[in-house]
Amino acid sequence: MTGRAMTCLFSSAGLAALREFIDAGTLLAFDLDGTLAPIVADPGKIVIPGDVIRRLISLQNMAPVAVITGRSRADALTHLGFTPAYLAGNHGAEGLPGHEGEEGVYVSLCSSWKKQLGTLLPDQEAAGIVLEDKGATLTLHYRNSENREQAHGEILNAIARLVPQPRSGSGKFVENIAPQAAPHKGAAVLSIMAHLGCSRALFVGDDETDEDVFRLDDARIMGIRVGMNPSSASRYYLRDQNEIGELLERIRVAIAP
Q1: Predicted TM-score (pTM) above 0.70
Q2: Which residues are paired to 130 by β-bridges?
């Protein structure tokens, strides 16, 4: 379901829904870039605010905390400042309990696509396109291209010619490429819930890859999007990333005995 009316989480109705929904047995899951950390031009320079890290560590002593990110697990760990109970990388293709044996297949496919893209996009650097190899997935960045529309078109054309065809999806000036069989973020949330035996989960994200969670339209999952977007399947939203710290504090108060 998409295009539903969104409710500001910090409205009276949103806060009442939050308090009613969560408890100490709720899985608390978060995206990283644009959610826990502000988006920056150089993805290698993201910084999670100190108060956000401290509140996440505090929450982890009260309820299960998971980070589900498009980054590789190794890369995410260099930026998190803490180790969550569960860390799923590559949009869910890496680090999910019970899926470890599949990751080698995903890495092999991405290695093949990387070689193909070297031929299909021979002028990547000149076009301002950066290919990021994350092991189990690939990401093509074009944020710093002088002509973003043209660069995006070249990327989409190249992806359409890959063999075998990957699953692809847009982010904020990026195109993500993953094996067709690889879990997405929605599958990752459900997998961690099942592993823990959690009957509910709260998930916070900010872009199109996070819509894979929101589109589940599962009453057991409370979706919160960072930034109001009329086309989002999320029921609730935060006005911007600066409200993450307050959200974590509201969660802590709601869970505290």
Answers
A1: yes
A2: 141
